[in-house]
Amino acid sequence: MTGAELRLGRYDLAVRGGTLVRPTGRVVADLGIRDGRIAGIVAPGTPLDAAEEFDAKGHAILPGVVDIHTHHRDPGFTAKGDITTETAAGAAGGVTTSLGMPNVSPPPNTPERLAAMLDLYARKSLVDYNVNASAAVPSEIPALAKQGIAAFKIFMVEDTGRDYPHMPGTGVHDHGKLLEIFEAVAETGLRLMVHPHDQALMTRIEHEFWDRGERDARAYARAYAAYDGLIWDSAAALLIRLHRATGAPLHLLHTQSRGVLRLLREAKADGLAVTAELNPWALFLGNDWANIERLGSYALSYWVPAVNTEPLWEALNDGTIDLVSTDHAPHLREEKEPGWTDGWKAHTGTPAIQFYLSMLLDAAHRGRITLERVAEVTSSAPARALGLGTKGRLEVGADADLAIVDLDAELEVRDEIVISRIGWTPYAGQTYRGLVTQTFVRGHLVYDRGSVVGEPGWGRQVTPTDPPATPVPAAARHTAAGGARPAEARAAALDSKELSVP
Which of 166, 205, 439, 496 is the most buried if burial means most Cβ atoms within 10 Å? Predict the structure, then answer.
């Protein structure tokens, strides 16, 4: 580095002495931030002309978490939470980009409704955002795609015994209409997220339980996991086949069964544009039957029988599962309580956005996953899957979205520290090693040691700058020596001490 390089302009912020954690490795470096972007990565102690400095010595710096699957409950269900409360909870967990889901009222399945929803985010979000518009009305898909969205969403489920959270206007399970939707989305080039479900099979399974008089939360849990994940496997097979037929980039939600993992491995071996996500409840909550017994519907989301746990960890580590998103789904206590007697009347879904990065950091401490892979699955991979080119990277030119982490500090989860409006968490009583201490969104501090300091309206809509990524087949992701993945060649150069200022 030369003095001439340092005279290119003053930095707004210098972040000093932290250990940058990227998918390809770790390096201690100073960051120079200008106009919301990382403008320089330099050796520790290099003189930087900066208006402010932040001391990150002794801490890890991960790329800000990109959560592409969040239920903010706004508009229409704000008693549970709204864009401000739920993005504040995200900021406390290192989340710097949060994409909302369309099961709100009214659902964003027309351009007018989507525009109104995006306006709400512009006024209320503390972090950067987008909305996964509903693709339930195929004729509206071309116009929705022109509003800067990053993906579409479809639920293949219709609720039985309730009309929420999978309400009319968001769900489609008719195969012919799904084909029509896939064809329309393919024309946009955007990715289609799908909640897989086989409604016909589920109807049969539900009635088997009901005919025996079994309706409580335990029955609900067993029904959705029946026949070794049959409803998930059947739906995923259909969706991957629809992708093969149409070419629409597919993102498979709620990966939880061994059968779906087999389908994903085949799809990736064939080079298909299919990505898949795992949600925290699959590894840290719903995979323990004791939690279902103790918490009932408060632990559902879904029961994931323990036979799936090791295969899911393996798939997360080898790239069969591309990324982790929260499926953050806040519900009031009074909406969960009916599950003690009728699981089909309790609202399904669990909150996780404030704590899920710590869950994965703790898993890294226990050797279940590497810290580098945590950075990949929570940030780099979701940004890449949706073509969000300025997000998920600790590189020059990327947005200065940073999660500052104390890897040795412990987080004791308690209902009293929950920021989401619901005021409870199914993870209460757990302790995780790995604590987010600060969160920066485009160089702006939004969370600082237990306090949300960001302002509603700071968030900006993040739009795709790149086409959705086609995943590298798992078998080709690593060299025999465990080398860098092809998609990360630029980052690998920096990790090999090639620090830079533009």
Answer: 439
User: Looking at this protein, which amino acid is placed at residue 203?
Assistant: T
Superfamily of domain 1-61+484-502, CATH level 4: Urease, subunit C, domain 1 (2.30.40.10)
Residue 272: pLDDT band (50, 70, 90) is very high
Contact 282, 326 (CB under 8 A): no
Q: Is 433 helix (H, G, I), strand (E, B) or coil?
A: strand
SS3 81: coil
Domain 63-385 classification at class level: alpha beta
Beta-bridge partners for 153: 134, 193
End-to-end CA distance of the chain: 10
Instruction: Answer whether 486's CB lies under 8 Å from 473's CB.
Output: no
- Contact (CB, 8 A) for 400 and 382: no
Which residues face 432 on adjacent strands?
Answer: 411
* SS3 call for 494: helix
Question: Is 92 strand, coil or helix?
Answer: helix
Mind listing the pLDDT tens digit for each residue in 459-496?
999 999 988 876 544 443 333 233 333 333 333 333 33
8 Å CB contact between 454 and 88: yes
Predicted TM-score (pTM) of the model is 0.92
The two structure tokens encoding residue 482: 């465990």
Domain boundaries, the chain: 1-61+484-502, 63-385
pLDDT of residue 373: 98
With CA atoms as reference, report the closest residue to 369 among 426, 324, 428.
324
Q: What residue type is assigned to position 248 of the chain?
A: A
Q: What pLDDT sits at residue 468? A: 80
d(CA 75, CA 143) in angstroms, rounded, equals 21
